[in-house]
Design brief:
The chain is elongated and about 55 Å long. Helix 3 links the parallel strand 3 and strand 4. The chain has 224 residues and is an alpha/beta fold. Helix 2 (33-42) runs parallel beside helix 3 and helix 6 (152-163) crosses helix 8 (189-202). The protein is built from 8 helices and 12 strands.
Length: 224
């Protein structure tokens, strides 16, 4: 899952990024409102942690403009502005949640999980496709009740596929959501990880979930 963190205090930005990365998120960061607005228009995120008091454009302005352009990315305001009027305004203009600084990271992490589940349309931490279940909190995978051991990268690829089940995704889309910008996009690493996943979650079972769409990419769905 990809999260955008917008916070002009660089030390705090760094801490939030590292904590979220430790929980398995892919994190982009920026430090001012104009950059944040550009990021939201150019990239698809699973959620945004957004400060209110930012240079160049404040968080409320960013969200208003983004929503007016049709951007529906979930947004969690994280701000020192603690007045009831501020919280109400943030929620009324389209934020999904509002937290006041100082904060406990454990709570922020829980709210980020809830925010990303909301986008994906699930009410729990578990994504399902037929008899396959992927628990994104516990980082466990089961098929037909059998526990399947995956490497961190295998888990990330499978999580992206199951979050987009029944939607054909390209190799480039998978790479963009799993690897950072320094990754060699011309390698066949996605095909390699798809083979690893098929061996573990498809080969032992009659119904094959991972399907190849020639010339396009892959889709996770059960055969009709």
């Amino acid at each position: 899952m990809k999260i955008l963190v917008v916070e002009d205090e660089k030390d705090l930005n760094h801490i939030i990024r590292k904590e979220l990365e430790a929980e398995g998120y892919l994190v982009d960061v920026c430090f001012d409102g104009e950059s944040a607005y550009d990021y939201l228009l150019m990239e698809e995120y699973d959620g945004v942690v957004l400060d209110v008091m930012l240079p160049k454009m404040n968080g409320f302005e960013i969200l208003k403009k983004a929503r007016s352009r049709g951007v529906q990315t979930p947004v969690l305001f994280l701000s020192a502005k603690s007045g009831i009027d501020d919280i109400v305004e943030g929620l009324d203009i389209g934020a999904d949640d509002y937290m006041v600084k100082p904060f406990a990271f454990q709570e922020l992490s829980a709210r980020v999980r809830a925010m990303t589940r909301k986008k994906a349309g699930v009410r729990e931490n578990i994504y399902r496709c037929k008899d396959l279940a992927v628990d994104c909190k516990e980082h466990t995978v089961k098929r037909g009740g059998n526990l399947i051991t995956l490497s961190p990268k295998e888990f990330s690829v499978l999580l992206y596929l199951i979050r987009n089940q029944n939607i054909v995704v390209s190799r480039e889309q998978i790479e963009a959501n799993i690897w950072d910008i320094d990754h060699d996009s011309y390698s066949n690493v996605i095909d390699v990880y798809i083979r690893y996943l098929r061996k573990k979650i498809d080969d032992p079972y009659e119904v094959k979930l991972i399907q190849t769409i020639r010339g396009v990419g892959y889709v996770l769905r059960a055969d009709e």
